[in-house]
Specification:
By secondary structure, this protein is of the alpha+beta class. It has one domain. The chain is built from six helices and six strands, in the order ββαααβββαααβ. The chain has helices at residues 38-51, 62-66, 68-73, 94-124, 138-141, 148-159; strands at residues 4-12, 15-23, 77-79, 85-87, 91-93, 174-179. The strands form two sheets. A four-stranded mixed beta sheet has the order 1-2-6-5. The protein has a two-stranded antiparallel sheet with strand order 3-4. It is globular, with a radius of gyration of 19 Å. The two termini are 29 Å apart. The relative contact order is 0.20.
């Protein structure tokens, strides 16, 4: 997947709207492939953990819960010292989400203008790829990362200690957005 993938749920546990935004990441990488209706179940699961409402977990598909150790490996959540699950991603308001989009659009345009000629030259004269990539279709070889700003902001917030304090692995490229 390239770009942003958003899973949204309305009216869940007191929130008007909840969205989980993943950037340039496949759902299976995030551990969301344990349920037939995985996106919905996974969003409920993550939001329940965020709220600390473990009683809601009983309503989720057992396959999702059985895969918890694998989900922990994706660093979307972790167990605290008492063994309680906690989410490991930023939680922002919907207003913050739209501010993020506005900034992303503004700076994407500036970068596109500044580097347009170099990008056009690269497309006209692509880099010679190693043999192991020759079987990859052209549309994937030159696919751009179209949502690098959210990933960069998540990483910067982690580096500044705004979340994931003491966490030394890469920050998951995921944001949970909540409208109360």
């Amino acid at each position: 997947m390239s770009g942003e993938c958003v899973h949204t749920r309305q009216n869940l546990l007191g929130a008007k709207e909840i969205s989980m935004c993943s950037y340039d990441t496949d759902s299976s990488v995030l551990g969301a492939n344990y349920h037939d209706n995985s996106d919905d179940a996974y969003l409920k699961f993550v939001y329940s953990i965020y709220l600390g409402k473990t009683d809601m977990l009983e309503m989720l598909d057992k396959k999702l819960l059985e895969g918890i150790n694998e989900i922990l490996e994706f660093n979307i959540m972790y167990r605290d010292n008492e063994g309680q699950l906690k989410i490991n991603i930023p939680v922002i308001t919907m207003s913050d989400r739209w501010t993020l989009y506005s900034l992303s659009n503004k700076y994407s345009k500036e970068i596109a203008e500044e580097y347009r000629d170099k990008i056009v030259a690269l497309v006209k004269n692509p880099v010679k790829l190693p043999n192991h990539l020759k079987s990859v279709p052209n549309w994937i070889k030159y696919l751009n990362c179209c949502n690098l700003f959210p990933s960069a902001i998540i990483s910067e917030a982690k580096d500044r200690g705004l979340f994931l304090k003491g966490y030394d692995k890469p920050a998951p490229a995921v944001i949970l957005c909540v409208k109360k």
